[in-house]
Write a structure and sequence with these properties.
This protein is an alpha/beta fold. It has one domain. It contains eleven helices and nine strands. A nine-stranded mixed β-sheet has the order 3-4-5-2-1-6-7-9-8, sandwiched between helices. The relative contact order is 0.15.
Length: 361
């Protein structure tokens, strides 16, 4: 745990040293007043929060200096389209929340840190599963980018955001190839804009955004929270041969008593030997792992250490991922009586599997 705390300090220093405080990239409050995880009475940065809400197709106070954009036909069309897309996602997130309350409350209440490898900008599902966590770590290949600002409010950019979000809102995941195209545009130059929009749609306000190269730190909260929360996004390659020393130090410094790992829609990377270091790190430093079948193969959850609960159904993975990711032992396990129902889709298949592994005490 001490290593993780030291690395948090180092990451914060990296975000705040040597960078310019440009409009829309960081909060307007002085640096020493930024709300971070564990600091009481978080305060929203109006510009960051309202810009995220506008790009999310959500209304802002009519007396805001940014309110004029809502009168335009382009934003009204954007608002209607995103409202419709969000209905599909919101229904699934409500069902995630119901499962969390009924079956996963012990994990959520214990989790202080969520370690979400291959998460990219997927804030919505990790927040729905673990709303009590103070700190989220999301990792992906995509750049961090910068915060949304007023100059981004154009009809063209509204359309780019809808395209970038549509697969996630309809199917629960982002497509890596599509993200490479969508997040390379000036208006959506990384994951931070996507995360900000999803935060807005999930009812969160943003206190500050610090972005520096491949890393970003977002301080956020929901009305009524006594403490702020922190999301760290780090762009990095998680193959064994590419692992950065800072990532390894962070992973190895996680407190297994308070860390839950989350994996979904990760192209079955953790089935490959070239990701063994991350796979082993998750198993060693998590008190629970919540994932779909694209995460850690079932055979790695040894029954002498892990208590595994299965939900939904296991069907053959999409043919695009090849035959090697099909898990015959998981098929056998799903054929046993007592499998729990799953009311929402998660991962690549409509008929989804959810695997919840709790480490034995």
């Amino acid at each position: 745990m001490k290593k993780a705390v030291l690395l948090l300090i180092a990451l914060s220093a990296a975000f705040s040293c040597g960078g310019r405080r440009t409009s829309g990239q960081v909060g307007s409050e002085p640096a020493d007043s930024v709300a971070v995880a564990g600091v009481a009475s978080p305060v929203a940065d109006a510009a960051l929060t309202e810009c995220a809400r506008i790009m999310a197709g959500m209304e802002i106070p009519s007396d805001s200096p940014r309110a004029k954009v809502m009168a335009g036909a382009a934003w009204k069309s954007h608002h209607a389209a995103l409202d419709e897309l969000w209905k599909q996602c919101s229904k699934a997130l409500d069902e995630v929340d119901a499962l969390r309350k009924s079956d996963l409350a012990d994990i959520d209440s214990r989790a202080r840190t969520v370690f979400y490898t291959f998460g990219g900008p997927d804030f919505s599902y990790v927040a729905a599963f673990f709303p009590s966590a103070d700190t989220l770590y999301l990792f992906g290949l995509e750049p961090a980018g910068k915060a949304i600002c007023e100059k981004d409010f154009t009809a063209e950019n509204f359309g780019i955001y809808r395209r970038a979000l549509s697969t996630h809102l309809r199917k629960s995941y982002f497509i890596t190839k599509s993200m490479k195209d969508d997040l390379g545009k000036d208006a959506v130059d990384g994951t931070v804009p996507m995360i900000s929009v999803l935060m807005a749609r999930m009812g969160y306000s943003i206190s500050a955004i610090k972005a520096d190269g491949p890393k970003a730190e977002i301080s956020y909260f929901k009305e009524g929270d006594e403490k702020g929360k922190t999301l760290f996004y780090i762009s990095t390659n998680l193959k064994d041969k590419h692992l950065e020393p800072d990532f390894v130090a962070l992973m190895d410094g996680l407190d297994p008593a308070t860390t839950v790992s989350f994996v979904k829609s990760c192209s079955y990377c953790l089935h490959e030997d070239q990701y063994s270091r991350v796979r082993d790190g998750i198993l060693a430093h998590s008190f629970a792992v919540v994932q779909d079948d694209s995460g850690i193969p079932y055979r790695f959850f040894s029954p002498d250490k892990w208590n595994v609960t299965l939900y939904g159904s296991y069907v053959h993975p999409l043919s695009a991922f090849g035959p090697d990711v099909y898990q015959k032992d998981l098929v056998k396990k799903y054929s046993e009586p007592g499998i729990n129902p799953l009311t929402f889709s998660i991962g690549y298949n409509k008929n989804s599997s959810l695997i919840v592994a709790r480490a034995e005490k």
